[in-house]
Amino acid sequence: MRITVKYLGFLNSFTKTAKQTIELNVTEPNIFSLIDALDDIHDNEFRTHVLDTKNNTLKVQVLVNGEAAGLYTVVKDGDEIVFFMPMFGG
User: How many CB atoms lie within 10 A of CB 1?
Assistant: First the structure.
């Protein structure tokens, strides 16, 4: 399946791109398996930037087609996934 991935904030400086389209060929297509695929693409460093592996929780916000998503949100062919840091402030 082909999906579009967008990286906002520090992630696009790390990945050296703001947007890419990838083929995701897994049996359970979800955000977790997408992170694994992106980790392979980005020299095994993507996971450490977006996932707290000790607690298996996201360090970033993820949107699937504009809707908030979690690690096990299913992704489908043609989906647009956005990874970004949440904004804080007062």
Answer: 13
